[in-house]
UniProtKB/TrEMBL annotation:
Annotated TM spans: 21-43
UniProt lineage: Bacteria, Pseudomonadati, Pseudomonadota, Alphaproteobacteria, Hyphomicrobiales
Sorted UniProt keywords: Membrane, Transmembrane, Transmembrane helix
Superkingdom as given in the UniProt entry: Bacteria
Source organism of the structure: Rhizobium leguminosarum
Protein's UniProt name: Cobalt transporter subunit CbtB
UniProt xrefs under InterPro entries: CbtB_put
Pfam families given in the database record: CbtB
Amino acid sequence: MSTPSIVSFPARRATASATRLLHSAIAACLGLVIVGFVGFSHIEVVHNAAHDTRHANAFPCH
């Protein structure tokens, strides 16, 4: 007879927490890159699309 191992639960929880933190950091970096690209874009269509989206969501931008 083998005894069930309970040791794996804390390890799984730590791995899940680290994965969640990594995903959050990647999402934040991606968001900053997108906002930086759109906000400082010299492509008028990209900038205007972001500008119109901000106004549609009632977010003041100027």
